[in-house]
């Protein structure tokens, strides 16, 4: 073989390493088992790109599905996965489905009612753009941070019992909008992709306890309003996300200091792409809000309307 041919082969091999695969790289695993009421079974599954977990059981059995992503070499117990799952079913049923991103996952199937044999399949798929020649499998949907369409940051300082309200207008092409409240613990705006990321963020506590309330088409500064979503758990940080926001109304967001005083930073971010995962949910598959509470009132909400000041003094909404 002459030198020219050798060089040509080497160049072709190098070029091939950057070409997309010719197949999607789909594969699957299947499991079967039987459970009595109250029993559970845990499986460990590696998903290279993205995966779809499906379980099916006989009529009359009520199964529940939990999944937690590994963040270390530690193997949790089934009860730990059930208590601190990153993704789980919404209600019991004879069949369930979950979508998981890339990584090592612990999956628990629990029978809450009835006895029977079930089957579980894990369908793994990699996109057409997955590299060949031994390169790691990577899925842009799973691995990169979702593109923020636009964002807005507000800062301030609150004492116990004080609050501050902001207003927002959401255009019609937004798939998801989120409000991230940082207390004095840190000023970094986190990228929250999984439920575990969200839990770590909202559980931070550095002395001040801030709550976050969101009102739809009702300004709590002038009217008796009920927040349709709120994060009123203990902690200095808070988070609320809305999938498929309504473009025809204004959203009002109130920060309330339940205990302590300190600086805050409120970040509002909107997304136009539906094919994303934020805070453990996929807007294309989910309709609703991510919040610890719904339909609640803040301690300083009005009990009767007050005169609305002239237009010149009303707050102009931020357009996300």
Structure in words:
This protein is mainly β and 320 residues long. The protein has two domains: 27-127, Jelly Rolls, CATH 2.60.120; 150-319, Sandwich (Jelly Rolls), CATH 2.60.120.380. Helices cover 10% and strands 41% of the residues. The protein is built from four helices and 16 strands. It has helices spanning 3-16, 78-83, 140-143, 195-202; strands spanning 27-35, 40-56, 62-69, 87-88, 95-113, 116-125, 150-158, 163-169, 176-182, 209-216, 229-231, 238-243, 250-259, 262-271, 288-290, 318-319. The protein has a six-stranded antiparallel β-sheet with strand order 1-6-2-5-3-4. The longest helix has 14 residues, at 3-16.
Name the features.
Jelly Rolls; single chain; 10% helix; 320 residues; six-stranded antiparallel sheet; 16 strands; 4 helices; mainly beta; five-stranded antiparallel sheet
The coarse silhouette is elongated
Uncertain parts? 10-24, 128-144
CATH class of the largest domain, named Mainly Beta
- Helix/strand class: mainly beta
What kind of assembly state do the chains in view correspond to?
A: single chain
Number of DSSP helices? 4
Classify the beta-strand content into a percent band.
35-45%
Under the CATH scheme, which architecture of the largest domain would be assigned?
Sandwich
Mean pLDDT over the residues: 82
Order of secondary-structure elements? HEEEHEEEHEEEHEEEEEEE
Spatial sequence of strands, sheet with the most strands: 1-6-2-5-3-4
Number of domain units = 2
For the biggest sheet, the summary is: 6 strands, antiparallel
Q: How many beta-strand runs?
A: 16
As a percent range, the share of helical residues equals: 10-25%
Rg over C-alpha atoms, rounded to the nearest angstrom: 24 Å
């Amino acid at each position: 073989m002459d030198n020219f041919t050798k060089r040509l082969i080497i160049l072709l091999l190098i070029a091939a390493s950057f070409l997309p695969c010719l197949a999607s790289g789909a594969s699957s695993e299947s499991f079967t088992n039987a459970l009595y009421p109250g029993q559970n079974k845990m499986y460990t599954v590696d998903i290279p790109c993205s995966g779809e977990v499906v379980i099916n059981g006989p009529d009359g059995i009520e199964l529940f599905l939990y999944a937690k992503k590994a963040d270390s070499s530690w193997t949790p117990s089934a009860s730990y996965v059930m208590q601190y799952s990153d993704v789980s079913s919404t209600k019991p049923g004879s069949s369930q489905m979950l979508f998981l991103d890339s990584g090592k996952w612990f999956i628990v199937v629990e029978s809450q009612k009835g006895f029977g044999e079930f089957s579980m399949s894990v369908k793994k798929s990699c996109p057409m753009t997955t590299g060949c020649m031994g390169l790691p499998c990577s899925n842009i949907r799973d691995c990169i941070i979702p593109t923020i369409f636009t964002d807005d940051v507000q800062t301030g300082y609150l004492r116990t019992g004080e609050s501050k309200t902001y207003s927002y207008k959401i255009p019609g092409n937004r798939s998801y909008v989120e409000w991230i409240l940082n207390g004095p613990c840190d000023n970094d705006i986190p990228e929250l992709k999984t439920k575990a990321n969200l839990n770590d963020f909202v559980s931070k506590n550095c002395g001040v306890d801030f709550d976050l309330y969101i009102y739809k088409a009702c300004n709590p500064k002038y009217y008796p309003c009920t927040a349709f979503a709120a994060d009123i758990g203990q902690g200095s940080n808070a988070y609320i996300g809305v999938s498929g926001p309504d473009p025809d109304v204004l959203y009002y967001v109130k920060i309330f200091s339940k205990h302590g005083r300190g600086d805050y930073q409120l970040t509002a971010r909107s997304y136009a792409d539906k094919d994303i995962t934020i805070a453990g949910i996929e807007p294309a598959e989910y309709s609703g809000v991510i919040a610890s509470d719904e339909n609640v009132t803040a301690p300083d909400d009005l009990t009767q309307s007050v005169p609305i000041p002239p237009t010149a003094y009303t707050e102009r909404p931020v357009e996300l």
